[in-house]
Predict the 3D structure of the following.
Amino acid sequence: MKTQKINILVFAAHPDDAELGTTGTLLKAHDQGHTTGVIDLTKGELGSRGNAVLRAQEAANANKLLKLTVRENLEMADGFFEINENNTRAIITCLRKYQPDVVLCNAPSDRHPDHGRASTLVREACFYSGLAKIETMHNNEAQQAWRPKAVYQYIQDYYLHPDFVIDISNYWEQKIEVLKCYSSQFYDPHSKEPITPISGKDFFDFQKGRSINIGRPAGFEKAEGYISARPMGVEDITKLL
């Protein structure tokens, strides 16, 4: 069966989660020659601002700047998706279809309950995807078992101590342009939509401060942070910064 190999695949509970947590990482990975993609679990239909149709258009605009190879939406129920067999199988099908080496997923715990639940759902699916006795189909063809080499969780609203950070100093301005694609979600002085924790005028300043805070201990001007559920291996200790 034909597959479309993607090196780095991001799973996000809502459209804009991947952008907030991983934009710099994805842009840098693309420039390093890696293929990248995003799988949104829901349409973000319960968001206080905008609607699912508008959010889909915003995601499409962001895709162009992110230089993604693929982006899909699994259309799970925003706010109510469960860790169950159907949703696990939907993610397994994506994993076997794109065979990513690295999976990035939501924070293990965060202000929005969907984030932690999505993190658990994706991490469990990554394990089960490697079990050959779990059968899945794509385009009427049986899929082969596939397990990513690594699963990392990106830091979102709550500050969680990162296990490692990615230097995105040269990609900060591009990240802001990507985030601005979600105009319904962020600051707009003319908007009559409800005020939310991410729609305030100072939210991008918060994002910048968070990036500086995460990067500083590693000697980076700005960084995105990740959590690993297991110890990471390294071949050459001198390559660690």
